[in-house]
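TEACHING EXERCISE
Course module: macromolecular assemblies
Task: Read the component lines below, then compare them to the predicted structure of the full complex.
Student: A.B.
Group: 4
Components provided:
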Amino acid sequence: MATVKLLTDEEARQSPEAWEVFEDIRATRKSDFVNNFWRALANDPPQLRRVWGQLKQVMAAEGELPPLVREMIYVAVSTANGCSYCVHSHTAAARAKGMTPGQHAELLAVIGLASQTNALATAMQVPVDAAFLAE
Amino acid sequence: MATVKLLTDEEARQSPEAWEVFEDIRATRKSDFVNNFWRALANDPPQLRRVWGQLKQVMAAEGELPPLVREMIYVAVSTANGCSYCVHSHTAAARAKGMTPGQHAELLAVIGLASQTNALATAMQVPVDAAFLAE
Amino acid sequence: MATVKLLTDEEARQSPEAWEVFEDIRATRKSDFVNNFWRALANDPPQLRRVWGQLKQVMAAEGELPPLVREMIYVAVSTANGCSYCVHSHTAAARAKGMTPGQHAELLAVIGLASQTNALATAMQVPVDAAFLAE
Amino acid sequence: MATVKLLTDEEARQSPEAWEVFEDIRATRKSDFVNNFWRALANDPPQLRRVWGQLKQVMAAEGELPPLVREMIYVAVSTANGCSYCVHSHTAAARAKGMTPGQHAELLAVIGLASQTNALATAMQVPVDAAFLAE
Amino acid sequence: MATVKLLTDEEARQSPEAWEVFEDIRATRKSDFVNNFWRALANDPPQLRRVWGQLKQVMAAEGELPPLVREMIYVAVSTANGCSYCVHSHTAAARAKGMTPGQHAELLAVIGLASQTNALATAMQVPVDAAFLAE
Amino acid sequence: MATVKLLTDEEARQSPEAWEVFEDIRATRKSDFVNNFWRALANDPPQLRRVWGQLKQVMAAEGELPPLVREMIYVAVSTANGCSYCVHSHTAAARAKGMTPGQHAELLAVIGLASQTNALATAMQVPVDAAFLAE
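Instructor-supplied answer key:
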């Protein structure tokens, strides 16, 4: 149960701005499925457009990192931030983009190791080496 | 200033177990530089060996993800966990492994976007779509 | 399912200290409803009294910030801390204090934006400008 | 020391896109000061424009929440996310928008209290009351 | 629903490495119960072995801290990291190791208080006293 | 540099409420040293009293957990919350209460391990075993 209403297509259609984004989500993903995150955001159509616009640009635009790598980074951040919804949705997205079980296992291993050394470095308050600061 | 002593080479050499790890760090990295994180961990030689052993296995072993991708995931996790030391050291490591300014920019963009949608999904308590749960 | 028992009224009444707090919660809120958080805390009556005492003082006492603004700040912190229970209960509390859908949308937008720039500032390890340190 | 270069005006001027944003920052704030966050982001001009665009829209546009309230929410999120740079810069921004010492004290008290009850609710894994889920 | 399959005994037995760990978990704990965390990790047998190996060493080996104290520290970290699974499993483990209701209440009180003062120290950006840095 | 003024004794003495707390801190700790956290909080005397009162009660009152164990739990929470000030001050406090290097090493090992398994459980979204929910 969300803290805002999850808009049905019918409800989203009341706002031309929201509906336009829903149509773009469908066209971009070549799928009729609009997941709950966008249905929740649709309560604030300008925010919906702003966030979707960023997602399209950051995750789908031409670039130097393959889309799958971007998704795996997304999963890593979502895990560290403890966002259950995002871990689920971006793990599914990474799979849809071809993540193999082996790649998933390595992603998990890096996330786990980084979390451990992050905590150790913080607990020991290790000062940054001068070598890392030289730009 | 750390909450533990940063061991000099001379001090680390007092423990054969710690010294062996220092030598392995140097051999593996083909560099004489041992950064502060390991000098701090060296106060507990078994822990030093355990953490270094994992790092070698997770970050350097043959696998499906290129070492650079693993480093970028490490930076992403370290950022979300707010570990200043780790952000510095693993950004430096990613650069040493060939991360271009363009890849760094994309990494930052994904980290920023994920952090935003993580917060929004949490604030709206969006329920996970059934489609993402199908295994 | 909690990691502690959620005390019923009957169980809470066994401890005069816990019961007194339950009665104060009801009197203060002019409602018979005592939510699960307090029923969980009631296992430790002095802690129940301490936390409730703070809440009354911090959230309800006369002050310079309107109670609704305090609730929205509470929602923001709860979101960043990933506390599902608290996001639900304090969003409900904010609504009860008059938060409009428009205010909620703006609250969400600020939370999302701040989370993004927080991550970017951390990932780039931006040094604090001297201008911000001048007291 | 940042993990990216902080661009001087001269360097930012090399990119028309970055320079345009710097000029808009100066015009919007009616001040010549461009703080380090933007100088760091300027290494990726499209990202600079995207983030500044959001900030202008979310923090400065007409709305139902006074700009000062938005700044205080920003400080709250930044604190919970442990972003030192952001706590400094947005506390300064809140002061510039008129935050009184009394309002600051209340903001701090709510942040502290919420952090405590967030942790307690999580540690006790309190289930959300049905009453909070009724939409 | 997990993002990976939870392996049944039959499935785990396909990998000699995974099965050996399952048998060691059962022997070490003198119980037939293998909880979901290990069934999830079993998809990556070397990672399963690595994590279980650490857990055995860190939580069960002879040492200066009683096993119960280690479990309570585990609960504290899991709470601050917002890991619902871990709060449940390690609270159960602490109970199995003899944690009394009174000790649990004190653990919760320290977690709550620390979370509050952590947030306050961060919000006020209190500089570390020289006295704490003298090693 | 803090976001609030660190009050000198002379400044704190202006508020009888703040001064009384400073005197109690000194009497309780049998030391003239008042660390920066309290000097920062002193800008809001009622908040200073509220937080100090809790600290005295939670950390120093008779109870089932030895004061040293409480301090180590405090360090664990402060680490997971990324509070540099608190990691320093409570590690110092734990040392003052007798924490040995061996105990510190074990504390660090548990913090590191828990952080790793927390991240793994979150990344895999492991469902809580029924066995842990039976109360």
